[in-house]
Automatic annotation (TrEMBL):
Topology relative to the membrane: Multi-pass membrane protein
Keywords: Membrane, Transmembrane, Transmembrane helix
Transmembrane regions listed in the UniProt entry: 6-26, 47-65, 71-90, 102-126
Record family assignment: Belongs to the UPF0382 family.
Localization: Membrane
Keyword Transmembrane helix recorded: yes
Pfam (any one): DUF423
GO CC annotation: plasma membrane
Organism (species): Flagellimonas pacifica
Tagged with keyword Oxidoreductase: no
UniProt name for this protein: Uncharacterized membrane protein YgdD, TMEM256/DUF423 family
């Protein structure tokens, strides 16, 4: 039960923050960020919203009786956090003239966790047929 609520809550929170960050990027950061930085920021927002939606859907469809379901959700939660929020940090710190370089390697780790989450989800669909 806790995993269901966590999944739904984090999905809703990620969705809420994606809308807020998207508006912030479109309005407040448009003049502050270079076009490539703004595009990166928007990529972070887009991926965050995609994974907010999938977390809400999974929260209503998974029973979380199998470990695989929890692994999928944890990969999506941690992957989204590492991927999107490291992009936000890189963009905002660069715009302020103090680029946080340590965030650079974190983004691909988050992306890898997202890929693993999707691969596990795909596997969970085909595993019963094997």
């Amino acid at each position: 039960m806790e995993t269901i609520l966590l999944t739904q809550f984090i999905g809703g929170l990620f969705g809420l923050l994606a809308v807020i960050f998207g508006a912030f990027g479109a309005h407040a950061l448009k003049k502050k960020l270079a076009p490539d930085q703004l595009q990166s920021f928007e990529t972070g927002v887009r991926y965050q919203m995609y994974h907010a939606i999938i977390l809400v859907v999974l929260g209503y469809n998974f029973g979380f009786e199998q470990a695989m379901e929890r692994y999928i959700v944890y990969c999506f939660i941690l992957g989204t956090f590492l991927f999107s929020f490291s992009i936000y940090g890189l963009c905002l710190s660069t715009a302020n003239g103090k680029k946080l370089r340590f965030l650079g390697p974190i983004t691909p780790i988050g992306g890898l966790l997202l890929v693993i989450g999707w691969a596990l989800l795909l596997y969970s669909f085909i595993a019963p047929m094997l």
